[in-house]
Every structure is written in C-alpha cells, then in structure tokens.
Amino acid sequence: MPSERTKASVVVRNATLDDVQAIAALVLKVYGRPADGYTPGMLRGQISSFPDGQFLVEYDGEIVGYAASFLVSEDLALKPHDWIEITGNGYAARHDPEGDWLYGMEVCVDPEIRRTRIGQRLYNARQQLCEDWELKGIVFGGRMPGWKRKRKQYPNPEDYVEAVKAQKITDPVIRYHLRAGFEPIGVLHNYLEEDTDSGGHATHMVWRNPYAVEVKPANKVSYSVKERVRVATVQVQMRAVKSFEEFMSNVEYFVDVCSDRRADFVVFPELFTLQLLAFEKRKLSPAESIEALTRYTPRFIEEMRELAISYNINIIGGSHPTRTDDGDIQNVAYVFLRNGSVHAQEKIHPTPDERHWWNIKGGDSVDVIPTDCGPIGVLICYDSEFPELARRLTDEGARILFTPFCTDSRQGYLRVRYCCHARCIENQLYVVTSGCTGNLPNVENMDINYAQSAILTPCDYPFAREGIAAEIAENVEAVVMADLDLTDLNFARSEGVVRNLRDRRFDLYRVAWKDGG
C-alpha cells in the first residue's frame, strides 16, 4: 500500500508569552546579530501591550513568521516620526487602546521558507484585524533598500519613491507594499539609522480600511470587564525560631490565611530567611552566615514551591541571600507560582551595608515574570529607588510590582516608600511592599527593623484616596489585602488626568540597556 504524503500545516495565530523564546530565535535568524533584533523583554512588552496585534505563522509546528503591531492615534500615525519614538524603543510602549490606526512595527519571515507566502499571511492578518475592529487602517515605515544604489541618480529619497511608483525603476520592498494595497504618503527621514541600504529613511506607508466607520463610539476600551487581582502583603516579625520546621510553619500560617481569603498573590519581606540563623549554636561571621543560608536554599525552594501549589496561591518569597552557581553571593527573590514553576530575581543594586556586611554582589538582569494574572515584576528594596528598572518592567508588560524590603530606620523606610509611590505614578501601575519588623539579636546587621508595608496605587480618580489601597500599622506583625482592578490602569493610561507613559518624549531621551533592551 503506497504511503500517503501529508501536506505541510500552516497556521496563523496570535502570539503568546509562551512563544517569546521561539520568536527571539526567529528574529536572530533573520537579522543575524542580537543587536539588530529584539530582546525577549521587548517581545514580552509587545505581546503584553496588545496581544490581539501580535501575529505569528507556524509551519509544521515551527514558528517561521512574526508580525508586531499596536494601536496609535491618527495624529501620531500620520505625522513625521522615527522608529524608536513611535514604538517606545521596541516595546510597543506607545500602544494606545483608544487609537484608531494599527501601526506595523515589524514583519520578519524565516529566509529558509519559500513559496508559502508567509509575509502575505501576516499582512492579511493585520488587515483582518483592522476590519474586525473597524480601524481606519494600517500605517508603518517601510524599507526602501534600493535607494543606496540609486542615490546619485535620486539624491532626494522622495524622488526615488516617485520613480518606483511610476515604474521607472524597481525596489523589491516598495513594489511588494504597493501590490499589497499600500500607498506611500511621504518619506520618514532618519527613521531607522541601522537600515543603511535605505539611508536610514523609510516610506510612510498607509493602507486605508474600506470598511472603517467615520465616527467611532466613545470609550472603545471596555471598562465593564473587570480584571481584579487580590494581593496580600505580610509584615513579618523577625523572631528567634528554633528550627527550619518552625520557620516554615510560621510562613505556612500566613500563606494559609491569604489563600483562605482567595488572594492571588502574597509577598513576604526582604531577608526574612535570616531567621534561620537564629538557632545556630554561636553567632556566625558574615561569611559563615552566607554558607549556612546557602545550605537551606534547596529545601527552602522546594517547600515554598509546595506551599504555592497546595494553597493555590502565587508567593513572592521575600528574598534569600545565598551563594549562586557562579560563586557570587547575591540577594535573590524567589517567586513560587501556583502552577509549580519557580522564578528568581536577583537584587540589582546591593546597598553599601549589604556589600560591607555580606559581600553581596548585584545581579545583571531584570525581567517580568509571567503569571496567571499577567506579567509581574519584583524590585528588592533599594532597587525601587532606581526608576530605570521599574520603567523596563512596565515596558515589558508588568502592571503590578512587588517590593520586599528590609530597613532599619524610618528614614530608610521612607526612601523605599516614597520611591515605590513614585514608581506607581510615573508608570501608572500598582506596587505592593512588604517589610520586616522586630529584631534578631544573634544575627549580624539585623538588630533593629522599621516597616509599614502597603499596597500603593497611582494618584488619579479611579484609585484609592492618597494612592494607598491598604497599609499596615508601623512595626506590628500583620497581613493586609486589597483588590486591584487592572482595567483602572488602562483607563489612567489612556484617559487619565495625566498620562505619564503616553507622554514620554522618545524623540529626546531613552535608556539603552546593555542587552539591547
């Protein structure tokens, strides 16, 4: 019996956060150098900002095409701009839920896949989205790679584009866009410096949706569908426990309390695992303390993971100083999700005190953590005082930041508190803080603590008075919870009294990360 030949399967679908690594591999394959493509953080930002606008093509189960797009207002879409400004440095951070134009920021196709019209499928998906959402059309900056060869003949890029339209000369990319129904309405000068074949310029391409309605109803963003997340913060009394089992029993008590009240997240303080040093037979030196804590790391991770699963709650496990695989001593926040996965976020900026007492080194990366309630970020204590970190996490899609902290004075606490509230306002997101109180007399550098843990919000009409959803009294052990409505953030970002994210001046400034983010 002759074998049947199965045809290759081609699927077009929306990208998800689970696809990020595969898309990053495709982008690297297409562009050759990491610096010319997108970081995983940028891809997470694109997908988190506008999931409906990110498309990919699978060919026999392998991702071979990706298109990134987001919504912008007509004013922004049709006026002169450059790529960094319009895309928010590659994160789709300029996405406007009220926008009436779809902006195409990227289309890339596996160069090894031929005669399957992957690019056309991606453009078709965008056009279908425009028709379904009754948007005015699609706009983007298109490459004009033939201009470099014809520059002497057409020193003005506008003349070059007109010559291509008149079919006096040919340019493969411009011709492709013209055949796809796009029209150039001008040239975007200095659009993308890295595109040397196009002289850094781009065609300002537009496709107008024939089914668009002239006047769209107000409040296109739906605020009736609530995205509520219940968060809990624990202010922990540092105490001299007699065993690891007693320490974990105390932790389980709070996890049980928060789970019983159906919290989605619970956060513990920075360095709360230093209680494990209290039952050592003698007072340890800083170096000995780190080695002792490192011995507990595998057991701590496994038992916290089991708590997250059994109590069906996501746990931000404070922070735990430990010696990592590369030999450095780092202050690490472990995040235990209720699906059983474990994530780690190193403290990027150790304080002078941490460097002196514990020889703690700073980490080298900060990224969002995907959860069942959307991407979140973790900034340990001092890291909250560096706005660049929170802005990156926001651009990657985080709408809630968790800040475990450990401060020994009111002044130190207020530095963290004021900076966390500043992060709420400038990024229009929520921040949940958790601190230690009490003391550990037999542990170096833990003789006193000061804390007032809180759940903080932006300062605008939809949010709590004074931007405080809930807070605990100073220096007492307690738990506090609040329901956070993520759709209120959408409202603030698109229609708030001030719109910090949207009003950034990408034409004047940006943060350049070492990893390209």
From TrEMBL:
<feature type="domain" description="N-acetyltransferase">
    <location>
        <begin position="10"/>
        <end position="210"/>
    </location>
</feature>
<keyword id="KW-0808">Transferase</keyword>
<dbReference type="GO" id="GO:0016747">
    <property type="term" value="F:acyltransferase activity, transferring groups other than amino-acyl groups"/>
</dbReference>
<dbReference type="InterPro" id="IPR003010">
    <property type="entry name" value="C-N_Hydrolase"/>
</dbReference>
<dbReference type="InterPro" id="IPR016181">
    <property type="entry name" value="Acyl_CoA_acyltransferase"/>
</dbReference>
<dbReference type="InterPro" id="IPR000182">
    <property type="entry name" value="GNAT_dom"/>
</dbReference>
<protein>
    <submittedName>
        <fullName>GNAT family N-acetyltransferase</fullName>
    </submittedName>
</protein>
<dbReference type="Pfam" id="PF00583">
    <property type="entry name" value="Acetyltransf_1"/>
</dbReference>
<feature type="domain" description="CN hydrolase">
    <location>
        <begin position="229"/>
        <end position="486"/>
    </location>
</feature>
<dbReference type="InterPro" id="IPR036526">
    <property type="entry name" value="C-N_Hydrolase_sf"/>
</dbReference>
<dbReference type="Pfam" id="PF00795">
    <property type="entry name" value="CN_hydrolase"/>
</dbReference>
